[in-house]
Structure formats: C-alpha cells, structure tokens
Amino acid sequence: MLFLFCHQKWQEASNRGAAILSYLGEQVPLIYCLETEPQQGEEEQKVEQHLLYPLECFLFGEEPCVGLEKLQQYNSSSSAQQCGRVFKEGETVYTCRDCAIDPTCVLCIECFQKSVHKSHRYKMHASAGGGFCDCGDLEAWKSGPCCSQHDPGTSVTMETVQFIFSYRYMLVWEETYELSEELKPKVKEDAYFCVLYNDEHHSYDHVIYTLQRAIACDQNQAQIYTALIDKEGRKAVKRGTLRSCQQAKDNIRRNSEHIIQIPLRVEILHTAVMAHQTFALRLGAWFQKIIGYLVGLREVFCQVALEPAADNDQLCLISRLMLHDAKLYKGARKVVHELIFSSLLMDTEFKRQFAMKFTAHYKQLQEDFISDDHQRNISVTALSVQIFTVPTLARQLIEEGSVIKVIIDTVMDMMSAHLDSNNRFQFQGHNPDKFFRVQVIFHDLRYILISKPSVWTETLRVKFLEGLRVFLRFLCCMQGMEEVKRQLGQHVEVEPEWEAGFTLQMQLRHILTMFQDWCSSDERVLLLAFQECHRALMSCTNQPFRREPTDSYMCKQILHARLYKVSQEPVSIHLPISRLLAGLYVQLCQTGAIQYLPDFVDPLNFTELAEQPLRCVVLAAQVCADMWRRNGLSLVSQVSVTNSTFSLVKKRKITKNMKVEFELFDIFNGNSSSKDQVSERSFSKTDQYMLTEEMLYLIIIIVGERYVPGISHVTKEDVTMREVIHLLCIQPMAHSSLVKSLPENVRIVFLLCCVLCFIVSFLCCVCCVLFCQALLEEKTQLESSSTEEVTFDFSLKAQRGNGTDSNTEGLSRNASMTLRCLKSVVSAQSVQDKEKAERKRKAEAAKAHRQKIMAQMSAMQKNFIESNKMLYDNVPESSSQSDTAASVDSRVAVGPQQGVCSTDWEAQICILCQEEQEVQAQAPAMVLTACVQRSTVLTQNRGKTLSPKGSYPLFMPPDLAVGTHTGSCGHVMHATCWQKYFEAVQNTTRNRLHADLIIDLENGEYMCPLCKSLCNTVIPLIPVEPSKLNYPTRCFMTTCLRARVRATPPRLWTGHHFLLSFSLSFAFSRSITEMLGVCATTVHRVGLQTAPNDLCPYMPVMSWNTCAYTIQAIENMLQEEGKPLFGSLQNRQLSGLKALVQFSAAQRLKSSQAVVQKHFADMLAVLVPVPNVENTPSILEVDFFHLLVGLVLSIPALYQEEAVDLQPSAVSTAYNHLYLLHLLTMTHMLQVLLASHGLGEVFLLRSLIVSLFLRLRAGVTGFCVEGVKRGVLPFLRCAALFFNCLTGVPPPEELSGTLHLLCSYLSLPSNLFQLFQDHRDVVTTLIKRYKSDAISHLVFRYPHKKNRLIDLPEDYSVLLNQASHFKCPNSSDDERKHPTLCLLCGVMLCAQSPCCQEQLNGEDVGACTAHAAICGAGVGMFLRVRECEIILMASKTRGSPYPAPYLDDYGETDPQLGRGNPLHLCPERYRKLFHMWQQHCVLEEIARSLELLNVMFPFEWQML
C-alpha cells in the first residue's frame, strides 16, 4: 500500500522530480510488459491505483475527488471558449454554408446540435481524422461562433497548480534505449523484447508469412500480431533473452527481404525500456484528461511546453517534439498530436506561438515527412490546416514569418533535382511516391491564401510581394517545360513522362486564382504584382521574343510577325505565368486600375503575349486532326485549350496571327504548291479542313462569346445562369449532376440556389399565363357553342397561344418543355383510364362465365334427378328443390354444403418452348418457378432459433420464430424444358467471373427465364380433382357411413365422426412424381438447413409448414395494405399459391404411409387423447393454422392400405375437413382466451382451462367477445385462403374478410361460441386431455402484432448523433468504427471490424452477418449510418448496396455523404423498403443488383 502515501513523500522531498522518477522506476516494470499477459482490465486497474492515483494526489495536494469538486466549482463560473474535440477518422462533422469562413471550419455533432447553424444551410461529411472542433473560434465563423455549451467565460487559474508539470520531461518519451539513472532498475535482468514496427512497404500477407517463418507461430497469431502492428505502429512479437531476441530479429529481416528488398524494421528493447515507453503513452491520455479540467491547467501546460530551454543550444519542448515526430511510431504520434490539439491549439496566444515554431521548422518537418513512409494524417505536418486556415494567424505568419516564401522555398528545394540545364523542370524518371508527398505542400499554400485580407498594412504588402516573387521564380521553371516536337517517319518508341507535370499544373490552378483574388483586394498590390508577373514572363529564356519578325502579305494587308511553325518546332502546354498574367489583367479591368498600368509597365505588345497560348490552341487543333498520332497517347491525354489570354488582343490582329500560327496563311493566299502537298511535313486536305474548322471555332469564342466577368458586362450570377440553362437544354439533370457539371468554384454553389429559383419561377409564370389563356378560350367556346360542338383540347390550345399577343408568343416558345410534360401527364391519365376499363371488362366477362357454368351445372343436376327419380321418392319436393338450388349456388368451401369447383387449371403455355398443354395427372409435368427461403417476417420472438431436436418442425411454435416461405413469379414451363434450361445455366454461369456471388449453383439457384427473378426450385402443377358432392350422394352416403362408423370401432376414434368411405386414388405420371420430389427436397433442405435426405420423416411436414407459413405471410401482407382477402392477388401470385397448396396435399402420396399416419396421430394428440402418444406440447405451444394444414393434408393417409392405394371419398373429405376445422377453431378460441387472461402458476392455468371449458359448454357469457373475434380472425382468414386453394370453391363476391362472411364460407356458425354447445361431448373429452398438459409459461397475445421496420427519425442528423455515441462492446480504442443499424430490430452493430467478429458454423464472420443469421434467418437489412447507405444481405457471401430512404431538398440520395446536404426521411421510399422485406423480395433484389453490376473485385460480405 505504498502508493497511498507516496505523494506525501514527494511533497516533502527536496528534489520532487527525482523522487517521482524513482517511484516510477520501481513500479512501472511491475505492471507493464510482464512475462504473462494480464487479464482484461487488470493492467489498467493497477495503473490507476499504483501510478495515476498518486500523481493526481500530488497534483491536487489532496484527494482527487475533492480536488475535482473544487475544479467543477471553478468551471461552473467559467467555461472554455473552444470545444477542441479531436476528430477520429470517419467521424461525422458539420460546416455551415452560410456562416463558415472556409470549408475547413467544422463542428462536432454535439456542438452542432446546440448551435444556431442547425437551422442554416449546413453540410455534413466524414472527417479524415486529425482535426478538431472549431466551436468557440471567433475567426472561424461569421456568426454564431459558440454553441450553448461553450459560451465565452472568464479563465481562472489556480495558484496551486504552478508546479504540477515540474516533471514535464516525462511528457515525451524519445526513442532512446537508455534509461535515466532514476528509472534504471536496480537489477538488470536478461529479459528483452523483439519489437516489430509498422511500415507502408510490406503487405499484410507478407508480414503474416514472415512471422510464421521467423518466430514459428500459427496463422491466427500472426494475423493478430499484424493487425496490432498496423493499428498501434509496433508490437512485441517475442520475449526472451538477448540472444533469442537477436536470433528472431535476424530471421524476420531475412525472411522479409524475399519479396521486397527493404527489410522490416525490428528493434530489441529491454523490458524496462518497453514498460516505460508504454506508460509514457498512457500518460499522454492522462494529461489530456487533466488539462481538460480547467483553463488554468491548460495554460500552465502550454507555458511549460513553449518555455525556452535553459541551455540556448536546446530547443523548447514542443520544437523537440515536432522534430522528433517522424521517428515515433504510429501509436505514439497519435497520442502526441491529440495532446497538442487539446492544449496548444485551444488558446489564441499559444496557438500563435506554436504556429511561429511550426513555420520556423517547416522545411525540416516536410523533409522528414517526404522521407517517411506513413500517411500525412498521422504526421505532424497535418497540423498546418489548423493554423494556416485561421485568417488573422495566416496574415501574421506572412508578416512575421514570411510563410509564403518558406513554403515555396521548401518546394523548390525538394524539386531542385528535377531541373535541367535550362532551369526548367523535367520529371522523366521521377519517384511517384515522393513526388506525391511534395505536392501535398501546395495544400498549405492554399490554406494560407484561403481568406484574402480586407485591410492591408505596409508590412503585409512587402511580405506578400516577396512571396509572390519567389512563387514567380517557381513558375518560371514550369513555363515552357516538357516541350514536345511532332514525330515524323515512325512512332515514338517510349512514351514520355507527362503525368507529373500535368498534375503539378492542376495543383496550381486554384493557387493562381487565389493569388489573383489577393491582388485584386488592393490596387497597389495588383499593379505591382502585374509588373512582377510581366517581368518574369519577359525573362523566360524559351519565349519567342528573340526572333526577328518577317512580313507576310495577304489581301492587300501586311502582317509583321515572328513566324513559328507548331508542326515543325517544339511547343509546350505548360504556361502558368501566361495564365497568371491574363488573370491579373482581367482584375485590372474589373477594378479600374488599368488606367495606372502605364506608370508601372511599358506599353504591352499583346500580340507577343498571346503567342504562347496561341501555340497551345494550334497544338490542340493539330492533335484533333491526328497530325501528332506518332507522338503516342501521352500528348492526347494532356492537351487542353486556354482562351483567357486572347481577350487582351485586338480582333483584327489576332485573326491574322491565327492564319500564320495555324499554318493556313499560304493555303488561304493560294500559294501552296503540289510539291509541298506530297511532302510529309505538309497538310492533307482533311488536315486543312479540320484546322480551318478549329480556327473558325476559336474566332467565334474570342469575338462573339466573351461571357466572362471583367471582359464583358456580366456578373457571376449571369454566368451561372447561362451555364445552368445550357446544361438543362441538353438533357434533364438532377441537382447533384448539375452541380458536378458546373465549373469548380466554391462560390458557385451559393449562387446556384438563387439561379434555380429564378428559372423555376419564370417557368411557373409562363405556365400560368398559358393555362389562363387556354381556359379563357374554352370559356368562350362553351358560351358560344352547343353541347355537341364543344371540344376540349387544353394542351393544344395552350401550346398554340394567341397569335396577336407578342408577349404570349414569346412565353409560348419558352414553355414548350412544360407543355410536353403536360401532354405526358394527360396521356398517362388516359392510359390509366383504359387500364381501369379493361379490368372492369374482364371482371364482367369472368362473372358472365361463372354464371354460364353454374347454369350448365344446374341443367345437368336436373337431368340427373329426372333420370334417377327412384332415389327421390322419399324426399319431399320442396326440400329437394331448395337443396338443389343451394347446392348450385353454394359458396361454402368446407363441409357437406361444399360448393363445386368452378374451374381446374387452364391450358398452360410454356415460356420456353411456347407450346400449350393441359394440366393432367398422366401428362408430362408442368412446373412453376419458385424460391424457397427462411423467413422471420411473422416472428413474435426475434432472435429465437429453431432446431429439429424438439417438437419442431412437426409443431410450429405460436411465436412463428422462423418459417419457410415459398414464393413464385407464376411463370410456367415444361419440366423437361426447365431441366434443359437449368443445365444450360449451370454450364454458362460457371465460366462467369464471380458467378457464385449472383446465384448459388450448388444449391440449385437460377434466374427465371422471363422476369429474371431468383429461384431455387420448381413447383409441379397438380390437377385438382373435381368434387362430385351433390345432394343425393350426400344424403345417401351420410346415412350409410354414419351407421358404419357406429358399428365399426375406428382406429383413432376421438368423439369426432371421421367418415371412412373410400375411393381409388388417381396416380401421377413419372414426370410429376419426380418434380414432387425435387420441390420437397428443396423445401426440406432450405427449411431445416440440412443436407438433402429423401428418407427424412420430416419431408412431408416441411411441405405442409411452408404451405401454412406462405399463406400466413400473404394474409399478413393483405391485411397490412388494407386489401380484401380475395381478388387482391395477381393471377400469377394466385396460381403460385394454388400450386403450392396442391403440391403440399400431394406429399402424402410421395411419402411413406406409416410416417404420415404417425404424424397425423402426433398432431391430433394436441387436441384429443390419442393412445401411445406421449410428450405432446400444450395448446399454448402450437400454432393452430400450421396444425390445421398438417391435419387436413395428412388425414387422407388413414384411408391408405398397403395393397391398395385408396383415398377418402368426397363425402368423407368434406366431413373430415368440417370436423377438423370445428375442433381447431374451438381450441384456438380457448388459446386466445388463455392469452388474454395473462400468465400465472401452472396449476392455476390448468384450473383456468377447466373453468373456461365448463363455462363455454354451459353457454355462460361474460367473455370479451370482441377480443376473441379479433384474435380468431387471422386464423379464419388464413383458413379461407387455404380451403379456397385446396377445394377450388370460389368465395362469395361480397366476401371482404369480415367474421360473419368468413364463417359462412367456412361453414361455421356466425356465433363461434355456439361450437361449444354443438359439441358438448367433445368438450368433455378435451377437458380430460388438457388437465394433463405441461403448460408453458410463455404466452403470446392474439392477434399477433404486425412486424414492421423500425421507426427512423425524420432528420438524418439524429442518426448521426446516435452513431457518434456508439461504442464498440468489444473494443476500448478510439479507432474508426462503422456503426451499422439493423432495420429489423434497431440494434446498432460494429460492422466491418475484426473486434466484433464471431464464429458462425466454424467460420469467422462479421457482426452484421452473425446478427442477420439470428435476427433475419440469414436475411439482413442494415443502414450504414456514416455512409448513408442500405446494405441488403442474403447469406454469408451475398449482399448488395441499396439507396437509403433519406433525401435532400432536391429529392436525391447522398451515398457516402458526398454532397453533405441536410437529409430527411422519405416515407414512400421507406415504405417501398418495408414492402420488399415483407414480400420476401430481398434475395431477388440482391440477385438483380449483382446481375447488373460487373463485379471485378468481390466484396467480402461475410466480414461486414
């Protein structure tokens, strides 16, 4: 417990620093870098107790909690003026388009939410890391510089903290491997670490391979080491003696040189040195926390960091820190940079002092960065954006530090090696990586010039012009560099290097504009700058001013010019000084300072100034004419035309010069000879035509279209409007495309809104005038004509307009586009009317067809009665007539009153061979394309998984945790055609690149030949056996069969009368039987996620389950959309559902008789006692619609015999269906009542069941009747759909899904409680059965809640705020995360990160993939918050991006937050996304998306 009192000893010691170091020298090696890895959190706990707690006690002079309370009191009266939050990579930041001084002024999300900028035109984007929040910086904002949390206050400095940084040298740990005397251990052990450092030369795989070979570790351990090295910058890969570590170091260096000649950096450190270096990094984070308590603490720290050293030869601490930055590894750099952010950059004065130090060491820092291999965001040079973008600080650095000169001199020193003998740049054979790092320096020059001064001082003028002169010397090295000469005879052998020079010129494009803006803000600076620029241009050695002029004659005109043939002599496209001079001349014209120009510059020879730019234009024209094709593609790639300089030249003189430069003078003068035409140097006729066309086009631009501010009388708004109108006349464009197509200018965005508003207002006014005119004409026609003569053609009259009004004619011409839109709307409306009429006609035709069929059936029944009068002798005439009419018009699907199936399958046409075929039992099979997938759309217990080990799949739990859905697009094929097509798809798809990402061939997936929807099986079309249940048959068979039932003890008699009348079962063709097996195998394999097994007893069960679940999903969808139960599905959807039900019904013929009979007995045991059936689930643990489908489809197996294939007769089937439906409806009503009473103890629940049954049997009322009706309604709706597809009996036309009509269709009493009165004997049996149930404590309410996607906020910034507070549950670092929101359950996940990977089926997968397997049965729908993008997932290997449902004010999405406009939720898009998930179309959307994309490098979706 020495650490509890050590701070008191430090206070009493004469040398407090030495006392602290001695204590740390003892304690740090006991905590860090031990031989055994400590448990998670154990090391941090020891650090807090043994090291940081004593330091805090020494700091505050008392208990830290007491000292912190005092500091909080100080902070309550004064708050920091700046936020200073350091941004991590990928963190969302905000800037205000209205108030920010420049785009680099940003706010963190907390400050943005509490600022006035939230209601302004803001922009959001992802930070690259390394910056900090500018809240509180008065120079960063025009208004609203502080949020409500960081309002300015008064700084308070505590006197007691003046000595807290007396041991300041502990702040930075330089990478020396010798400890001071105080820190050295008393006994030096032979314990060392072999430390491997990060670099950017070696790949992940190379480092993993090296570690496996060098230190004999497995691949997983090597991957962990490599990830930590890349993240933190270094990692100790071996601990041992000095000899063993030296051997490991040699092995690593030797193995790393196999591929790349540069070996990996490896060092050997003593364990004590390693421990103290690790603790020094921990102290950096601790210092940030300490100095954040109070402004005074921060000021003391800054004073210590900037205090000059006692020895004049030593630099201050912050200077040593910056100069040592390139030698630190990545983790140490990050800590040091964050410490600078939170201290020195938070105060204006200390920020100024730091900026002066930074400028003083700028050249050395850039040299270290260029020689370094790490990225700029982890280099101290990246701090330039924080200091150079502050306007007052930038001007102060120009005045006191000559920062412009420093930056340009640094660039010149770096690029001096590329100067040739003519003092011009030549980048042939340059180092691309080094050159890229040199170009980064130009960003600092842009930062300095980003805000031009409003007030100039004499010192600022002198220093700025000094920097401009240095900049002009740099431009002189670029003027005319990399000249090219036309290649004749043969093609150039080696393509010259051009990208470096061209990239350099693109970098200077904005800098030239900024220099012009600075010069234009002061008249004297502008004139002096033009003088310097003109002098620099005249001093260039490669200018054409050295030749003697010659005279040329044409059309009685004399041209006195220096001839220069571009096709024969060298020419360069790099003319930065000419560009700058032309821009300064335009500024002189705009500001009016042109009148003073003769006092600074001799009279200008504009013809000579335009010479070089004109050569560029001629070069571009000749390149377009293919005259330079032998020079290769490098020249074509960099040719650009510049017309700015030509605005200075008189039109007549430039026209003459063009003829000479284009080498068309002799041609126009008629002096070209036939000898010249044959020469290779001369031009062909095609070349002459193209050059003439280019020259005339240039004349048009110069003479006629000088639409440039400063040259013609136009403003920037006029230029923007002209560009917008030209772009919109070419084609309709979205706002984002319009912005991209406009010139790259920051201010153009602010003008665009005003311009677009003006254009829209103009079009609206045009439309209003034309519409009013057309309406007046219609009114006149109505008043002067009869009703028969009136014709209304609004769009035609609006387009024609009034010919007598000239204003209206002009408006008519301008509104032609609007009228075309009106015509399209009118035509679309007429198309919709036609579609409605067509649907009405088809409905009437179908009704007439049904009536015709019913009349035919009535006539057939009358003929049957007349021919069999003996059977009706004992039947009353009135009863016979009424029953006959009822039978004819019966719309009952269940029971003895069952109606007649209207139609069977119509003749189907194969979509592949286009042949027509009837659906018959012995005919070749016809199949429907289908897709089977697992689903959680209906789940009431998200996250629950099902396995065949329990009662599932025979009994579906009531929560519908995971179901098997089968959907079909309804397209029909012959089975043989489908098999040929599937084989062809397999053969062709295997050769495609990454074909496994689109369809899974091993699991039988394919795309529908017609609609390209994803499928993985086919459903055979089973013919529906027509029901011949009429009145005489029903009466006769009922009497006989009831007598037989009473005489014969049934095998499964339970109180219900299962009628045992038999008929022979019709057999299917071999083709249909095979297709039944194909579909059943797919359903079984997908539903249970097992390998195909035809002998599995659950094969028929899974077919029944997918039938039931699909019907429930369709009913849920119809109810969600408010559509009627019947008549809402498309014909193809209805055909698919009908085929699925018939397929499920036919499974009993494909499966074993004994297996199906056993399944029936097990399912029936849930309702009534069945001998020899045990472990039956209770009624609260079963979904009764699944049970209904299983019992109805399996009961025919009771009639089968081993020798004879029998099936129940029509009467038996009708009564069996009726009794099963009654029994299940009663039990489901009891289930609803129990769920509404809540849960209690098991014996109480059993007594409740008995009491409920007794009351229901006695007819006692008092129950919540409406609640029961609402709970039972979904079951009855699903039953109606099921029996409709099973029996084919059409529903009544007025059936809308209400309970009364549903009961009528299902042959149920309108008062469902009457069932308990009608079946009293059955209720007694049920009471005995349910008293012995093992009741589950988990009860779900009925009706089930409707699953929807989670509610998203209307403002996207709310989601970004939520993501900013997200912390990875498995990681404590501050590295960039990808917060991803699950739209199904609302859980925020850490995606695409190794920290949250999980094991799924023995394979490492990302957090989203693992979550989708549990939450959505493999289907996932995620929103990547920082990328504003939806991710659809279908499996571990397949997924696709999808547009997010958030739109900006222009109705566009913003993936990756590229534009950064405010985003708001679009309900329609989100509803479309919900329907995609609800209708099980996610897999189809992914497949179609991947089919359209040409995937070259596949994304590892399993790691998401």
UniProtKB/TrEMBL annotation:
<dbReference type="InterPro" id="IPR047507">
    <property type="entry name" value="UBR-box_UBR1"/>
</dbReference>
<dbReference type="InterPro" id="IPR044046">
    <property type="entry name" value="E3_ligase_UBR-like_C"/>
</dbReference>
<dbReference type="InterPro" id="IPR014719">
    <property type="entry name" value="Ribosomal_bL12_C/ClpS-like"/>
</dbReference>
<dbReference type="InterPro" id="IPR003126">
    <property type="entry name" value="Znf_UBR"/>
</dbReference>
<dbReference type="GO" id="GO:0005829">
    <property type="term" value="C:cytosol"/>
</dbReference>
<keyword id="KW-0963">Cytoplasm</keyword>
<feature type="domain" description="UBR-type">
    <location>
        <begin position="81"/>
        <end position="152"/>
    </location>
</feature>
<dbReference type="InterPro" id="IPR039164">
    <property type="entry name" value="UBR1-like"/>
</dbReference>
<keyword id="KW-0833">Ubl conjugation pathway</keyword>
<feature type="zinc finger region" description="UBR-type">
    <location>
        <begin position="81"/>
        <end position="152"/>
    </location>
</feature>
<dbReference type="GO" id="GO:0008270">
    <property type="term" value="F:zinc ion binding"/>
</dbReference>
<dbReference type="GO" id="GO:0061630">
    <property type="term" value="F:ubiquitin protein ligase activity"/>
</dbReference>
<keyword id="KW-0808">Transferase</keyword>
<keyword id="KW-0007">Acetylation</keyword>
<comment type="similarity">
    <text>Belongs to the E3 ubiquitin-protein ligase UBR1-like family.</text>
</comment>
<dbReference type="GO" id="GO:0071596">
    <property type="term" value="P:ubiquitin-dependent protein catabolic process via the N-end rule pathway"/>
</dbReference>
<keyword id="KW-0863">Zinc-finger</keyword>
<comment type="subunit">
    <text>Interacts with RECQL4.</text>
</comment>
<keyword id="KW-0597">Phosphoprotein</keyword>
<dbReference type="InterPro" id="IPR003769">
    <property type="entry name" value="ClpS_core"/>
</dbReference>
<dbReference type="Pfam" id="PF02617">
    <property type="entry name" value="ClpS"/>
</dbReference>
<dbReference type="GO" id="GO:0016567">
    <property type="term" value="P:protein ubiquitination"/>
</dbReference>
<dbReference type="Pfam" id="PF02207">
    <property type="entry name" value="zf-UBR"/>
</dbReference>
<dbReference type="GO" id="GO:0000151">
    <property type="term" value="C:ubiquitin ligase complex"/>
</dbReference>
<comment type="function">
    <text>Ubiquitin ligase protein which is a component of the N-end rule pathway. Recognizes and binds to proteins bearing specific N-terminal residues that are destabilizing according to the N-end rule, leading to their ubiquitination and subsequent degradation.</text>
</comment>
<protein>
    <recommendedName>
        <fullName>E3 ubiquitin-protein ligase</fullName>
        <ecNumber>2.3.2.27</ecNumber>
    </recommendedName>
</protein>
<comment type="pathway">
    <text>Protein modification; protein ubiquitination.</text>
</comment>
<dbReference type="Pfam" id="PF18995">
    <property type="entry name" value="PRT6_C"/>
</dbReference>
<keyword id="KW-0862">Zinc</keyword>
<keyword id="KW-0479">Metal-binding</keyword>
